[in-house]
Design brief:
It contains eight helices and four strands, in the order E-H-E-H-E-E-H-H-H-H-H-H. By secondary structure, the chain is an alpha+beta fold. A hairpin with a 2-residue loop joins strand 3 and strand 4. The N and C termini lie far apart (35 Å).
Length: 221
């Protein structure tokens, strides 16, 4: 059985989970408190990060590398386009969310509101929370600009870029930190991706001490 070592509110874990589910690859989920640097986990990934995918007797790390590995291993349904420029655009947008969005928004909102409590490192830093709340508006506007010209974020087909964005936003949505009224087109995009069967296990996630908001698992939010 394939096994994914993950943490429920890790956007990088969620991205891989979405790709696995979309491609209907069965996997056992193993929750990992990766920050505790457990010796067994560190042997699986010396970088001390989730996700880690075990297939057969091999361990695979780094979320985007895992996603593209799965794409090559199971090319149907396709989550990467064929042309070089189109593939570049997918990777560019994935990079935007996994780097820029993560550092400007996810770290500052999820990191302060959730991970400080989970890791026992004190109270949220209000300066970071305010900075994240301000930055997410810019990112939602950028998404709206992209979606005005395309059906999906990287083009006219669903790709890993959409799953990368949805992974980050779904984590923030869990703590009600996304103003879905800011852009109708982004809200519609999220509702569309949220209604996919691949999203079901994501919407079932529960983190002790952080109850789901009432709208979280609603498909017509």
């Amino acid at each position: 059985m394939n096994r994914l070592y993950h943490f429920p509110l890790s956007p990088f874990s969620r991205k891989v989970r979405l790709v696995l589910a979309e491609k209907r690859i069965e996997v056992e989920l193993v929750e990992e408190r990766y920050w505790e640097q457990d010796a067994d986990f560190m042997r699986r990934n010396p970088a001390g990060k989730v996700p880690v995918l075990k297939m057969g007797n091999k361990f695979y790390t780094e979320s985007q590398a895992i996603c593209e590995f799965l794409e090559e291993l199971h090319p149907t349904p396709a989550l990467m386009p064929k042309g070089a420029e189109a593939r570049y655009e997918v990777r560019r947008i994935v990079g935007w969310f996994d780097d820029k969005f993560y550092n400007e928004v996810t770290c500052k909102l999820l990191g302060e509101r959730v991970f400080r409590k989970v890791k026992g490192t004190g109270y949220p830093d209000s300066t970071n929370v305010k900075a994240g709340a301000k930055a997410i508006k810019y990112h939602l506007d950028y998404m709206a600009w992209l979606l005005e010209k395309r059906r999906w974020l990287a083009g006219n087909d669903l790709t890993i870029a959409d799953f990368a964005a949805a992974a980050h936003l779904s984590c923030l949505d869990y703590i009600s930190d996304v103003d879905w009224n800011r852009s109708e087109i982004v809200k519609d995009w999220y509702a569309k991706i949220k209604s996919r069967p691949a999203f079901r296990s994501i919407l079932a996630d529960q983190l002790p001490g952080f109850p789901q908001p009432s709208h979280y698992s609603d498909l017509d939010f």
